[in-house]
Write a structure and sequence with these properties.
Blueprint: H1 7-18, H2 21-44, E1 63-64, E2 71-72, H3 75-85, H4 104-126, H5 138-149, E3 153-155, H6 162-166, E4 170-172, E5 177-186, E6 191-198, H7 203-213, E7 217-218, H8 228-237, E8 239-243, E9 254-256, H9 263-267, E10 271-273, E11 277-281
Parallel strand pairs: 3-10, 5-11, 6-7
Antiparallel strand pairs: 1-2, 4-5, 5-6, 8-9, 8-11
Helix pairs in contact: 1-2, 7-8
Amino acid sequence: MTGESTPCSNRSTGRGEAEHGAQGEVGGVVADVTCSAGAESRRKDPTPPTAVCSMCNENPPKYTCPGCSRKTCSLDCVNGHKAAFSCSGKRDRTAFVNRGDLSYDTLVSDYKFLEEVQRVEDVSKRSQPPLPRRQLPKPLKVLVQQARNRHVTLQLMSPGMKRRKENSTRFDYKANIMFWRVKWIFSDGTEAVHSRASELELLGSLLDKSVQMRSHEDKALPSESGSVADVARWSSTYKVSMHQEGVRADQAVDFDVDLSMTLGDFLRGKRIVEFPVFRVRQ
């Protein structure tokens, strides 16, 4: 046994004979430390060249699990090690990696991981639930509900819009009557506005008042009876229409207005944006 030598002992002896004095002693110590470190690293190597499959312990390994670094030889052994060790088979991409262990594959994996994080973030932003709808004040909620009870779809604009500021439509709880703001636009460009027109009043009567006002708001003009003669005069003198609102411009139509109907009856089944607007031709 004493005649045998190892590569480490040969290198140590050779260096000791080649050098003299203190230098030879130092060289021998360095060689011994290097050889001992190399032997230690070989003992810690989990996959020596002669290793076998970690599952069947028979065949040489072909695959290395990215998750746990176990060596396997076949698909059955790969699936077996996943079941036995609860391994996902995927590398922990958030685990710490020493600088010396970084490789091209590691960088590519990290880059793809960052791309996946960005993709998940983008998807989550697009999949967010819609923001809750703006809650209307109670008086406006009542107004919309009472219009719906009369089969009128009342659409309110955003606060700050001109038409929203102008709207003076109100609901009278005691009388159970809607008082609409009504605007009349004449062919010569002049306008007349009823700030509180009862839904029970005839459209012809409202039109007569608007002709008298012409660009003035009506606060409380007396209602007219709406006799047969009045209806005939209204129909022969005026042609009134209302533009359909709340739809695309190319789909909108103009409704012919029957002046013998009450305001409430005419608005039934229609969509109104804030308040009705009538156009008058003579």
